[in-house]
């Protein structure tokens, strides 16, 4: 009985070996590359307006802060730390939701926030009515709903980051869920490559 059954399953096994297995390997490698090298993120809300709009698709460099073992948080190779002004992708410490916010302060920084405007180490970042500067990088703010909760003055501990939305009065950010572990940030957002209603673009962040 086994001898007659074997030929019946042979074509299926051959197909699995020749077609399905290479396809499965290719898909696994593709997902591994997305998880460790480059990925994309679709912006769910207006918390980063005007920099990012709801529905924007953003290219994310998953190697920017270190190379991770695919499908894990295990960092195999360090490659720097998030810097002030970076737009970073990470999981919310509150509930694990994947978020995208701006890194505004790093370890050792003394931070104050009043009426939506930041001061870092005693230096006010405001450049105009709705703009701040992180070094030489200008960042537009949305303050149409005010500045949200103030920060009276905190010093960021080692290994931590403070992240905020550019829409300061309408952002669920570090003022609500606390500081983010620097080594858990997935990647750095590089550019908007698709905007709803406008189509393809390459707007660097």
CATH architecture descriptor of the largest domain: Ribbon
CATH class descriptor name of the largest domain: Mainly Beta
Number-wise, the strands total 17
Task: Decide which structural class fits the backbone.
Answer: alpha+beta
Descriptive notes:
The structure is a single chain. Helices cover 19% and strands 39% of the residues. The protein is of the alpha+beta class. It has 2 domains: 1-36; 38-204, Umud Fragment, subunit A (Ribbon), CATH 2.10.109.10. A hairpin with a 2-residue loop joins strand 10 and strand 11. The N and C termini lie far apart (67 Å).
Please outline what is shown here.
This protein is α+β, with helices and mostly antiparallel strands and about 200 residues long. The protein has helices spanning about 1-35, 175; strands spanning about 40, 55-60, 65-70, 75-80, 85-90, 100-105, 110-115, 115-120, 125, 125-130, 130-135, 135-140, 150-155, 160-165, 180, 185-195, 200-205. It has two domains: about 1-35; about 40-205, Umud Fragment, subunit A, CATH 2.10.109.10.
Keywords, please?
205 residues, eight-stranded antiparallel β-sheet, four-stranded antiparallel β-sheet, 2 helices, 17 strands, 19% helix, globular
